[in-house]
């Protein structure tokens, strides 16, 4: 993940207003500030902020264009990381929330800067030893197990969402999102939605569900393999913990296998196999993973819908000054098709 200096007037940051807000609301923040957009995010906009005393912060706000009604809820995302920050699950410290849209055109929140590397390609992991890669994979699944063990009432998230019917609600939600975001007809999306709805598994337990858990949304210490922080909580909710486990499987490639998700580092020597992760998670949590393929199918289908939504937002100019080259746009467009077909294949194997 890289940062690029930006023309703040064109990216959703009103420099004067945000500077005043930071000075008034973030302890220790010293004006003036340097803002840089963190490239790589395709949904909410994320900015690195450096103050006059070389303190570093991170600011998150929604895209600058029109967004779906329930998407990009900054207060919700801030609430989740504030609560998770009370536990041993590593997240950036939540420092402040602004809900006054007159400041910069949308709500935003500020969190502490955390060192680490986002392992969003095999190249990012190439310099890690085989032993550290394995340690990183094991710690990634351990952190997920720890997240799913958090007492939601104890950390104040018991009323974040309904506790039951998670997959059923998600299937309905993303079916609706597809209708609002699609740029073309993809019959596989519709067929998978029907098949998923017909085979809803019994939910066993409730946990904080991240919704987009993978290496690409974590900061990792590449010398030890430790996950320093879990990022990007915009899809966080209460739900079936196995959905996160299945989603990780959509991205994961076993060593030597072709990596179909180029923004994931797995598939090279050293990383555990997905079966290893499942065994480790099951041993740590005691959960039955015999139906995990359903959750992998569900996750691939949902990711197809999300990919189409990102593609649509770039087409409609809703991502600030983040320029989309034709190859990247085509990757999102074709990726939605491939993910939908993967999900359909998985559902066919289940029946």
Protein model, in words:
With 351 residues, the chain is an alpha+beta fold. It has helices at 15-25, 74-84, 122-125, 130-148, 166-181, 187-198, 241-251, 274-285, 292-315, 326-350; strands spanning 3-5, 34-38, 45-50, 56-61, 94-98, 108-112, 207-209, 218-220, 227-230, 237-239. It folds into two domains: 3-112, Phosphorylase Kinase, domain 1 (2-Layer Sandwich); 122-350, Alpha-Beta Complex (Aminoglycoside 3'-phosphotransferase, Chain: A, domain 2), CATH 3.90.1200. It has ten helices and ten strands. A six-stranded antiparallel β-sheet has the order 1-2-3-4-6-5, sandwiched between helices. A hairpin with a 6-residue loop joins β8 and β9 (227-230). α5 packs parallel to α9 (292-315) and α6 runs antiparallel to α9 (292-315). The protein is globular.
Could you give the topology of this structure?
Layout: E1 3-5, H1 15-25, E2 34-38, E3 45-50, E4 56-61, H2 74-84, E5 94-98, E6 108-112, H3 122-125, H4 130-148, H5 166-181, H6 187-198, E7 207-209, E8 218-220, E9 227-230, E10 237-239, H7 241-251, H8 274-285, H9 292-315, H10 326-350
Antiparallel strand pairs: 1-2, 2-3, 3-4, 4-6, 5-6, 7-10, 8-9
């Amino acid at each position: 993940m890289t940062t690029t200096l930006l023309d703040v007037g064109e990216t959703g940051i009103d420099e004067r207003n945000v500077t005043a807000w930071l000075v008034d609301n973030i302890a220790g923040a010293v004006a003036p500030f340097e803002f840089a957009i963190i490239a790589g995010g395709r949904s909410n906009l994320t900015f690195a902020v450096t103050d006059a005393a070389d303190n570093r912060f991170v600011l998150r706000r929604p895209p600058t264009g029109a967004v779906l009604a329930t998407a990009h809820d900054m207060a919700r995302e801030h609430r989740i990381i504030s609560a998770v920050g009370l536990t041993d699950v590593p997240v950036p410290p939540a420092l402040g929330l602004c809900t006054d849209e007159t400041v910069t055109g949308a709500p935003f929140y500020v969190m502490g800067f955390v060192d680490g590397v986002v392992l969003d390609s095999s190249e990012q992991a190439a310099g890690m030893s085989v032993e550290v890669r394995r340690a990183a994979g094991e710690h990634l699944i351990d952190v997920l197990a720890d997240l799913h063990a958090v007492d939601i009432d104890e950390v104040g998230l018991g009323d974040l969402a309904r506790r039951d019917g998670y997959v059923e609600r998600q299937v309905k939600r993303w079916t609706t999102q597809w209708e609002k975001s699609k740029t073309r007809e993809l019959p596989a999306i519709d067929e998978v939605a029907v098949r998923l709805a017909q085979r809803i598994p019994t939910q066993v337990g409730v946990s904080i569900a991240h919704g987009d858990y993978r290496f690409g949304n974590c900061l990792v210490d590449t010398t030890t393999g430790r996950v320093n922080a879990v990022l990007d909580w915009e899809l966080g909710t209460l739900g079936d913990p196995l959905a996160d486990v299945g989603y990780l499987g959509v991205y994961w490639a076993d060593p030597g296998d072709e990596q179909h998700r180029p923004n994931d580092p797995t598939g090279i020597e050293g990383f555990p196999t997905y079966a290893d992760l499942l065994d480790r998670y099951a041993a740590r949590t005691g959960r039955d993973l015999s139906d995990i393929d359903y959750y992998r199918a569900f996750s691939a289908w949902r990711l197809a819908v999300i990919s189409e939504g990102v593609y649509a937002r770039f087409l409609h100019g809703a991502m600030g000054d983040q320029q989309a080259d034709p190859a990247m746009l085509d990757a999102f467009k074709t990726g939605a098709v491939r993910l939908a077909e993967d999900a359909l294949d998985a559902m066919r194997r289940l029946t």
